[in-house]
Amino acid sequence: MNNYNQTTGEVSDYSQLPIWKKYAWMDILYVGYGLLIVALVLVSYILGMFNWLPYDPQQINMDMLMAPPFSEGYLLGTDFMGRDIQSRIVMGIQAYFLPGLLAISISLAAGIVLGVLSGYLGGSVETVVTYFTNLIDSFPRLVLILLVVAAFKPDIYYIMMVMGITGIPAVATAIANKIRFLAQKNFIEAAIALGLRTRVIIFKHILWYNCRALLIIQATLGMGEAILLESSLSYLGFGVQEPMPSWGNMVQSGSNYFLQGNFWPSTAPALAILFTILGFNLLGDGLNNILEGRRGK
Amino acid sequence: MSRTILDVKQLSKNYRRHRSFFSSLNRASDTIPAVDNVSFYLRENETMGLVGESGCGKTTVGRTILRLTSATSGSVFFDGLDITHLTDREMRPVRKDMQMIFQDLDAGLNPKMRVYDILKEAICVHARLSDAEVENKSRMLLEQVNLKTSKLASYPAELSGGEKRRIGIARVLAVGARMIVADEPTSALDVSIQAQVVNLLRDLQKELGLSYLFISHDLQVVELMSDKVAVMYLGRIVEMGLAGTIAMAARHPYTYILWSSLVEKQNREASQNTKKIDRRAAWGVFDFERPSSGCRFAPRCPVYEQHGRPRECTDPENEPQLRDVGEGHQVACHFPLCG
Amino acid sequence: MPPLLKVENLRTYFYSRSKQSFVRAVDGVSLEVGHGETVGLVGESGSGKSISAMSMMGLLDAGPGVIGGNIHYAGSRVQKNLLEDLESFVRIKEEHGRVMEVSKDEAGWHKHSECLMQNLRGREISMIFQNPRASLNPYITVGEQITEAIRLHTAIKSAKEARERALYWLEQVKIDSPRLRFNSYTSAMSGGMCQRAMIAMALSSEPSLLIADEPTTGLDATIQSKIVDLLDELKKGTGISTLLISHDISVISRLSDRVAVMYGGAVVEYGNGKLLLDKGETRKHPYTAALLASVLNEQNIRDKSNLQAIEGDVLDTIKVPPGCRFHARCNRITPDVREKCATHHPDLQEVAPGHQIRCWLFATRD
């Protein structure tokens, strides 16, 4: 049964709904959760940077091996070497935060440049850029990374550069398509006809007003992917090496003790990976729905 | 005798490999002459109407004049200045005086900007004014287009069609336009709103001394608004003259068919029996791809049929050129109708 | 003989969640289409004419949709009320004559309505739409679409016969080279040809009623006149009844026998076409009069004068005023009806046999 009620007051010209009713509550939940995760990551990064941690992540405590969570003094317990898991998890963020930022910066910066060139200039520029992005797209990311790892040292920054480069096509095509869409609606021509400077048209009208949602979303998704990539690589042994903590290598080293029944040292970092990537992805998804897609119903 | 504000000489614009609706019937040719050798001039405070069916190139003429696309050949003089080959930078100060009203009501209205911001941007393009002056000017502009100043705070999505059209006009005035190319200004609007917009455009012309290039497929509005009219067919002007002459005493068969297809006229003609030629003209395929074999209208021309398909009409060397037939009236036809 | 289609007090509302208000798109429309008659429905955007047609065909998705009224269809083969039993699915609460609350079992009504419309849509009642290219399937040929319709809606089931019939109708709509068009896709056809194809498809099932929603809008001037000619010929040839919806008064006046003028979701004037649209006739609803006056005519052109525009904007059906819908824009209010116009919504009154006007200026004494 569907119920509808007419408001008793005067009908206003503008939307009456408060934020929580304007958008689907699922999307608001996603965005809320995502923002929470982002905040946690940021705070943890700063804590880790200044080493304001409860324990030294590398300090071994042979008395308390494999302590379960909520043990005395150790909120998340300890691992197989008595090291505090909480501190290690917080420290593990160092491994991917800056490199992840590098990756998304590369994707966005280069993607914006190529997208704008391709969309705005069209013609042969568009063709060249399309070929170029298709070329990048056609390489499987992991293969490229392993190549880089084999050719150079397994430096996380090199790896993230590759990740950034492979992320360019998504951004470039999204922006180029948006520009094409705007052009179809005479949007850009009207701006030119008015006499606006090209610089203004591109930065203000196209990028800021029309593309910022897209870019934010690409950034959040990119960060999620960066985390996954870094964790996978350290799990495989290519990334951060012991005893420096990284979520991936924590899972790896803890896995030796998994079958003995001590599954916490391995599970804790895995859960961290899960919830964090989920947070970034949901943030991107929720923002996408709110800003671009279904604007409420 | 007022000065000439716009002078177009032999303007041509070719598009390459334009996908046409009929490409499955004929193979697409390499270049489409969307605008072919168009020449006319517009004086200050004058309105020139440009009519034709969709695809005839009238919109392209407007866009090329404003340098929104570059001309393939020919020249455009604005206020005596040759603007055909100016760089974008050099064009910018010229754009202050020549503006366009687009067919799409949303063109130029960024959905994320309020009306005030949109107008402010337009005002500040070529002038530096203080905030107070900008606000003043925007109020004045809204009053000029008969909108309540409370609309300044609205977003384009909250405006009706007529209101959007007026904001578009206000935006163009804000920059300081003296000549406006109006591309189908009334097409997307309701009948009662169309009347309002037509009145507004007329009043503004009287008040501000504007010149209009009025592009439309609505023949009656064009007849009302324009001093002179040019009829285009497949990229060429086939007839040009004073508005009244074109409407009442058309000499090109296409012009005659066009005007007589007004349903209202049919209703009247049916009762008065004053048809000159049977407007159930042979319906030829509207085809850009067909190579021009002389007169482009020949496949659809009933006069061509009536005269037993004379060879001049299809002779590629003998494409009909615009010829003076008196009083500023020009026709491009080998067998023009009698006046 | 009862009229082919009799619409009584049709009400279709939508709801705007963001403004917490009903959109009273169609608010009490009543009209009739007799056998062999063409009724023109004139109005601007927001008048509710298209929504009325969609309501009649049961093609509305948004909630709440149709909430009241009766649509009596009395064809030769089928007679029924298309909104039968609507009351059991809808509950309305009114305050001071205005609807304030609606409860509707939309899913249930949708199923019930589909049952009711089952053999009618496409078979007895056909509809053609404004943008022909958007209404035809671009991925299959025109011929396939028409034959599909034929096999679905008529007794013809064999492919060969359906093809013959489709070609017959393509010829009837005067499309050039019917055999060629039969195998074409819509991308290869111009707007006018697509419209003809759609008309062929609609008529191929030999319906009793054709609903044409803005069939000439968006087409070039020369093509518009040809489609109008075609509809005129088909009307005379097949004797089909038509409900013609358009904002183009010249098209309506050429093709319609009776005309209904809509404004703000209600029919404001209803009567014989020639009479209604004749400018000389003095008894007219102020909106009709203003609309006719605002349309460009020879007089304006001769005098090069400004047009007589109607002030204000077309009614926003979210903010429906309590009195007459046209009150804010009316230029014929006299002091003695002023108050009534502002507070009470007038009913349709018969001012002459077959001519009804909804206006306090013409209301007879109670």
Overview of this protein structure:
The complex is a heterotrimer of chains A (297), B (339) and C (366). With 297 residues, chain A is an all-alpha fold. Helices cover 70% and strands 1% of the residues of chain A. Chain A is built from 11 helices and 1 strand, in the order E-H-H-H-H-H-H-H-H-H-H-H. In chain A, helix 4 (123-138) packs antiparallel against helix 7 (168-184) and helix 9 (198-236) packs antiparallel against helix 11. The longest helix of chain A has 39 residues, at 198-236. The model of chain A has no long low-confidence stretch (mean pLDDT 84). Chain B has 339 residues and is an alpha/beta fold. Chain B has 12 helices and 12 strands. In chain B, the strands form 2 sheets. In chain B, strands 6-7-8-3-9-10-12-11 form an 8-stranded mixed β-sheet, with helices on both faces. Chain B has a 4-stranded antiparallel β-sheet with strand order 2-1-4-5. In chain B, helix 3 packs parallel to helix 5, helix 4 crosses helix 5 (161-175) and helix 5 runs parallel beside helix 6. In chain B, 47% of the residues are buried. Mean pLDDT of chain B is 83; it is low at 20-28 and 279-291. In chain C, a hairpin with a 4-residue loop joins strand 1 and strand 2 (21-33). In chain C, helix 4 packs across helix 5 (159-172), helix 4 packs parallel to helix 7 (191-203) and helix 5 packs across helix 7. By secondary structure, chain C is of the alpha/beta class. In chain C, the strands form 3 sheets. An 8-stranded mixed β-sheet of chain C has the order 8-9-10-3-11-12-14-13, with helices on both faces. Chain C has a 4-stranded antiparallel β-sheet with strand order 2-1-4-5. In chain C, strands 6-7 form a two-stranded antiparallel ribbon. Chain C is globular. Chain C has 13 helices and 14 strands. The model of chain C has no long low-confidence stretch (mean pLDDT 86). Classes of the chains: A mainly alpha (297), B alpha/beta (339), C alpha/beta (366). Chains in contact: A-B, A-C, B-C. Chain A binds chain C through residues 1-8, 11-12, 15-17, 21-22, 296-297, and chain C through 13, 15, 17-22, 63-64, 98-106, 318-319. Strand 1 of chain A pairs antiparallel with strand 7 of chain C.
